[in-house]
């Protein structure tokens, strides 16, 4: 047998082996698909909802059956229950220049700095500049960067959004703030904002306006709170929007708006807080750690305490859980917001509202968190990724759902 014949025979054998291997892989994949397809839909949904977000998107391409399951309301609800706590980030410079990129950072990942812990969302809303305002169950409220009025509610995972109507009432003063929450009793999503009318010689009178998804307009709740939040200094916890009021005395510095009954109330800070705290209220920050409301308190220039409210609304449940040395944090009077306790004995915080830093309790040192692909100067809101569809959570003729990639997206916003 000549040399060419040997080479030809070798190529044929190699081709048959590769073909056989490929066929075996296809058969194995087909068996795997058929095994899942004979399982009850509820079990398949339960399995798929446990996958990382990137894998879920890949699974949409497996078959029409899987695609329909992954687009179903049942899958959205199941996935939301185990969705990883995340942080939604926007580069501050992009915001000012009209950039349209958002980043999601998985805070439950083994390594939050690894590329697998982040997602990037690019939008085609090039004619509008926006600020991140608030987020609830995967839905994000975007506000106009100039007027601070709420513009739309967006689901970054799906790209769907709805535009928000303007208030029909005129006010002399409004707060550049919009909070978003969910009422489990009625399964409704709500937005609130604080406005006031000033008719001299009467004093300022604050009102709470609310917008329910699926309705046509904003409405007044009838609440006239003594305190109003300021942009960036409020947190959602236990179905309520909570904020600190720096102008009041320390006995009533924490206020709350309940999204279910649409009422405002105040509750006290830790009982250990005394009259001296009235002088440092401005340096306090309200946060949420492990689903509990917390206060970052700076009673002196050398350290600050993190108090955690173990039982919501109960003053006696406040516990001083952490003490952090301030000098290592670039000075005593910087603004630090606790975000998440990490698995390696560190705590993730937001410094001065724009820089992610990590503090090590063991080493008593701080370092800037540098994430590849995400700039250092950022805006951030808590985020729970979800596949919730507007059509499943808000009904009515007034609901018009658009997509950021649609041809009418620019004109709608």
Can you describe this structure?
The chain has 413 residues and is an alpha+beta fold. The chain has two domains: 3-78, no CATH class; 85-162 and 181-186 and 237-412, no CATH class. It contains eight helices and 26 strands. The chain has helices at residues 3-37, 41-48, 53-59, 64-70, 73-81, 92-97, 390-393, 409-412, and strands spanning 86-91, 101-106, 118-122, 130-136, 139-144, 150-154, 160-163, 173-174, 179-183, 188-197, 205-212, 219-220, 234-237, 240-244, 254-258, 263-267, 285-289, 292-297, 303-309, 318-325, 336-341, 346-351, 355-360, 365-368, 378-383, 402-403. The protein has a five-stranded antiparallel beta sheet with strand order 4-5-6-7-26, with no helix packed on it. Strands 8, 9, 10, 11 and 12 form a five-stranded antiparallel beta sheet that branches. It has a four-stranded antiparallel beta sheet with strand order 3-2-1-25. A hairpin with a 4-residue loop joins strand 23 (355-360) and strand 24. Helix 2 packs across helix 5 (73-81). The longest helix has 35 residues, at 3-37. It starts with a helix and ends with a helix. It comes from Liquidambar formosana (Formosan gum). This is F-box domain-containing protein. Residues 39-79 form the F-box domain.
